[in-house]
Amino acid sequence: MAGAEAALENLVAEVIVDAERRGDVAVKWESDVGIRLPERLGFSRMRSPYRSAAGTEGVTGYIRWLRADAHDEPPYYSQTSSFTCGAVAAILALEIRGSGGFAADDSNRDSEIDFWRRASNYPSCEPIGLAVALRESLVDAAGTSPVEVFLDTGEAVLLESYPDGFDRRFREELQAHSLRKALTSDIGVRRERVSIDEIAARVGAGELALLLIDLEPMMGFAVPHWVLAHAAADGVVYIDDPWISSTWGESWVDSHELPIAVDDLDRMIAWGDTGYRGVVFLRR
Question: Which pLDDT value is given to residue 34?
C-alpha cells in the first residue's frame, strides 16, 4: 500500500511539473472517495456543489493553484436542462453578489426553471432579456444601476434556427418587449462591441459577467451557451460553466473554477454569422 501511494505521489509530481512547464494555472484532482493525499500534496478541497445535474454528486474535487491569483471560490450548480444555462449563470451571479441564489433544499430546480421562464426567448436566453430578468431579481439594488448589457447588433439574436414565419416573429416580439423594458429601467444598454480587455479588467476589478459564448473552440461543435466570469488576473479569466456532460465522463470538477486565457476567451465570445457579442455585467 505504501509503495502504491509513493508511486501515486511521484506521478502527481510529474503531472504538476508538466503543467508548470506548459504555463497552466491549476491542476485539479477528482475522487469518488474521501482521501487525505491530495491535501498533503498541496491541493485544496473545493466547496461541494449544489445537488443538481448528473455529475454533481458522489465526487470530491481538489485544486492546486500554480500561480497566486487570489479570489473567492464561487458556488457551483449544474443546469438540469439543456436550455437553462443563462438562468443558472444569472442565479449564481446573484448568489455571489449576496442578492439571492440557490438554496440548501429541493427548491433549486424550481428556481432555475422560474428564472428561465422570465428570461427566455424560447428556448434560449438572449442578452437583453437576460439582463432584464437579472435586474428584476435585484430587489435590494434600487437606484444603483447594477446591470449593464452589451450587444453589438440592433437585430434580433439567437434566431438562426428560425429563418421566417411565426416561430421567428413571436421571438422577435419577445426581444422587442425586453428591449422596451430595459430602456425604461436603469439597465445600461450598450450597442458597441465590448473588448476582451474591458471584460477582463472589469471582472478583475470585482464585477461579474455573463458571457454568451460559442462552444466550438472548447467542445468542437457550435452551440450558443452562457457562462459566468467571476474573477480575472494576468491574462486569465476564471469562469464557471453550468454545463456538465456526465455521459462523456465529466463532473462538476471539470466545469468549476475554469481558467481561460483571454485570447482564447476572445474567440469564444461571439455567435452567429456576424459573430455578435453579448455580455451582461453585474456590479457587486
Answer: 64
Q: Is 20 inside a domain boundary?
A: no
Distance CA 262, CA 234 (A): 9
Whether 182 maps to a domain, the answer reads yes
What region, left, alpha or beta, does residue 275 occupy, with left being phi > 0 and alpha being psi -120 to 50 degrees? left
3-state secondary structure of 232: strand
Is 140 domain-assigned? yes
Q: Answer yes or no: is 76 within a domain.
A: no
pLDDT tens sequence across 45-75: 999 999 999 999 999 999 999 988 889 999 9
Q: Which domain holds residue 246?
A: 84-282
Q: What is the DSSP letter of 279?
A: E
| DSSP of 90-115 | HHHHHHHHTS----SSTTHHHHHHHH
CB-based burial label for 183 (10 Å; 0-12, 13-18, 19+): exposed
User: Nine-digit cell at 254?
Assistant: 471539470
pTM value?
0.96
**CATH number (domain holding residue 127):** 3.90.70.10
Indicate the number of domains in the chain: 1
In the predicted model, what is the mean pLDDT of the chain? 95
Distance CA 118, CA 205 (A): 29
As a whole number of angstroms, the distance between CA 145 and CA 87 comes to 20
